[in-house]
Amino acid sequence: MARILLIDGNDGTRRRYTQFLRSDGFEVIAMSDAHGAVALVRASLVDVVVTDAKPRGAIDGTEVTRRLRNDDGTRRICIVLLTTGADYESRANARAVGCNAILERGCEPEVLASEIRRLVRRHGDGHARQSRMHRAS
Question: Mind spelling out the 3-state secondary structure of 10-40?
Fold first, then answer.
């Protein structure tokens, strides 16, 4: 199954999503803020990044997306942004920088897992697998 990086500043939400995704067979790396996310994505070889629009710290979800899309090593990773329904600016910015999906913050874990599976099927989860194989060579 796919390897997920989950970035959410709310401890309860992060725990809830992490526990559900793990029980659903995903490998999950969870962090509370987006600082260093790009380096972590490259080092951890994740397939999907799920980020809150406004996690803790100075870097928001849109900036995480922008940095990943501008890096040759992470450009193809699927990105899901979690935002509030009223946060139209974050939604517009997320679309502009290349998020693959935008979901309501606080959506049911099943909805998030379903969207991750859809993205993995559509885009493949080969990024992390191929990168691991390449490193092992």
Answer: CHHHHHHHHHHHHHCCCEEEEECECCCHHHH
